[in-house]
Design brief:
Shape: elongated
Helix content: 40-55%
CATH topology of the largest domain: Alpha-Beta Plaits
Number of domains: 2
Order of helices and strands: HHEHEEEHEHHHHHH
Low-confidence stretches: 53-67
Mean pLDDT: 84
Distance between the termini: 52 Å
Largest sheet: 5 strands, mixed
C-alpha cells in the first residue's frame, strides 16, 4: 500500500517531468487528498537544507507533515536530492501568497516560482525556481528564500547565467580588458558605489582625478563609455559572475 508521503513524491515527480494537458484533471483529482482545489493558484519551490548536527532537522522530517515547514499550507513534497552537506526538497505549495517557511533556526536556501494555475507549467516553473535558488545561494545570510516575482532583471540575468555555468563568459570578458590591479579595483569600487567618483576616491583613499584617470583607461580598454547602458550591463554582470 502506497503511503501518503510516497504518493506525494510520486505525483510531484510526474509533474516535474512535464504533464500532458490530457492528464491535468486526473492529477488535480489525485491532489485533492493533499488539500488542493482544482486550478487554484500554486507555486513550486526548490529548497536546500544544510546538514549539520546542530540543525535540528532530521532527514525524516523533510517529508513529514506540511505544517512542520509551510505554516499549514497544502503541499506536495519530494526529497529530490542529497549530498554530504545538503538535502534538496522540491515542493508544490497551494496559494499565491509568498512563501514564509517556519524554518525554526536551521539553515536553508530556496528559490520560489511565481504563482500559476496549470499543472502543465510545473516543469517550466521549477526551472525558474532553480534560477531563484542560485541567487539565494550567493547571498551572505545563512538562510535565504528568493521569489522569482521579486527578482530584478539584472538579478535574474546574473543568476541564470550562473545557474547555467556560464561564468566563463564573464571571466573571459574581464580577462580581455587586460586591466592592471589598480584599474580593476577602481572599476569594482566605482560600480559598487553607484558610479560616484567622489565616493570611489574616498573609499580607495586617492584623489578624484586619479579615479577619473583610471576610468579613462577602462573606457579605452572597453572601446566605449562606461555610461553607455549596454557597457554598464556588461560590466555589472561580469563583475557579479566572475568575482
Amino acid at each position: 500500500m502506497t503511503s501518503r508521503r510516497e504518493e506525494s513524491a510520486a505525483i510531484l515527480r510526474e509533474l516535474s517531468r512535464g504533464l500532458e494537458p490530457s492528464r491535468e484533471e486526473i492529477s488535480w483529482t489525485r491532489m485533492e487528498r493533499f488539500g488542493f482545489h482544482h486550478y487554484e493558484y500554486i507555486r513550486v519551490a526548490r529548497l536546500t537544507f544544510a546538514k549539520n548536527e546542530n540543525s535540528g532537522l532530521a532527514s525524516q522530517e523533510l517529508t513529514g507533515p506540511a505544517s512542520r515547514l509551510f505554516n499549514d499550507r497544502s503541499t506536495l513534497q519530494w526529497q529530490s536530492g542529497s549530498t554530504s552537506s545538503h538535502t534538496e526538497l522540491t515542493v508544490l505549495i497551494a496559494g499565491e501568497d509568498p512563501l514564509e517557511i517556519a524554518h525554526d533556526g536551521y539553515r536553508l536556501t530556496g528559490g520560489v516560482s511565481e504563482p500559476f494555475t496549470s499543472l502543465t507549467q510545473v516543469r517550466t516553473m521549477l526551472r525558474t525556481a532553480d534560477v531563484a535558488l542560485e541567487m539565494a545561494r550567493h547571498r551572505t545570510s545563512s538562510s535565504s528564500i528568493v521569489h522569482v516575482d521579486w527578482m530584478r532583471p539584472h538579478e535574474w540575468a546574473t543568476a541564470r547565467l550562473s545557474a547555467n555555468g556560464d561564468q566563463v563568459i564573464a571571466k573571459r570578458f574581464i580577462r580581455r580588458l587586460e586591466l592592471d590591479n589598480e584599474t580593476l579595483t577602481t572599476m569594482q569600487t566605482h560600480f559598487s558605489h553607484e558610479m560616484d567618483v567622489a565616493a570611489t576616491a574616498q573609499k580607495l583613499n586617492v584623489h578624484e582625478n586619479t579615479v577619473r584617470y583610471r576610468l579613462k583607461k577602462l573606457e579605452v580598454a572597453l572601446g566605449s563609455s562606461i555610461h553607455d547602458a549596454r557597457t554598464v550591463a556588461d560590466i555589472v554582470l561580469a563583475l557579479k559572475l566572475s568575482l
